Amino acid sequence: MVLTLGAEVPSTPADGLVNTIWVPAIEDIQKPTAEEINAGTDLSNYVTLGGWSCSPSQDSISDQRENSAQDYENPGRKKISGSSIEVIDNTNTEHSAQNVAVETLAEGTEGYFVRRYGKQTDADFAAGDTVNVYAVRVGMSAKMAIAANSVLRSKVNFSVRAPGWAENVKVA
Question: Based on the number of CB atoms within 10 Å of its own CB, is 129 exposed (0-12), middle (13-18) or buried (19 or more)?
């Protein structure tokens, strides 16, 4: 498909169209199954707006040649930095029985975050859905600063571990 200059390109509002699922085990992050994901814990209602922080980047490999006045590059190692998730924290409140994110994301826990964009959050995951999968180890959590007109929140750090992450993969 070729877009004509000046053609209107539609956009989709993100509100209500992002899932964050905690999955204890996934056999192959390149081919997660709907069964694996649907057996996970839905943290979507606990993640604050803008609370997902995970920045993939890729280094460059210098490829200089003595017979050229130009420097070339090749794609290098990939990494993720700034990885954390900000969640509602109902510890010690009248809603403490509804504190699944804080309880699930205990320091040292290993598992997988699965993120899906573009479908209603109450829709089950199905074969053909496109998702991002991150194999992680949960780090420390910290209470967020209190501000006027805000809710109690915690920031939970995590590190990507082997086998890494897979973006834009199809659910099997």
Answer: buried
Q: Look at the block and give the residue holding tokens 């990494």.
A: 79
Give CA–CA dist 111/87, Å, rounded: 17
DSSP H/E element including 158: strand 153-170
* The residue to which tokens 């929140």 are assigned: 153
Asked whether the predicted pLDDT for residue 3 surpasses 80, the reply is no
Q: Report DSSP letters for 101-150, one per residue.
A: HHHHS-TT-EEEEEEEESS-TTSPP-TT-EEEEEEEEEEEEEEPPP-TT-
CA distance 69 to 66: 8
pLDDT, tens only, 146-161:
999 999 999 999 999 9
The arithmetic mean of pLDDT across residues 64-91, rounded, is 95
